[in-house]
């Protein structure tokens, strides 16, 4: 139950979600422009 590790894991989890969302938005913009 190391709080620091818990915070690190939560931060990495949120970062991966944020990156996925940003990538999806970017992909959608590119798709709309090209299609």
Features:
mainly alpha; 1 helix
Question: Topology, please?
Answer:
Elements: H1 3-34
Structure characterization notes:
The protein starts with a helix and ends with a helix. Helices cover 91% and strands 0% of the residues. By secondary structure, it is mainly α. The protein has one helix and no strands. The radius of gyration is 15 Å and the shape is rod-shaped. The protein has one helix spanning 3-34. The mean pLDDT is 96.
| Major sheet size, sense and barrel closure | none
What distance lies between the first and last C-alpha atoms, to the nearest angstrom? 50 Å
Question: What is the succession of H and E elements?
Answer: H
Shape: rod-shaped
Query: Count of helices?
Result: 1
Radius of gyration computed on alpha carbons: 15 Å
Mean pLDDT: 96
What is this entry, summarized?
The chain is mainly α. It has one helix at 3-34.
């Amino acid at each position: 139950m190391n709080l620091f590790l818990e915070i690190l894991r939560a931060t990495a989890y949120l970062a991966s979600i944020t990156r996925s969302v940003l990538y999806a938005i970017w992909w959608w913009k590119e798709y709309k422009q090209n299609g």
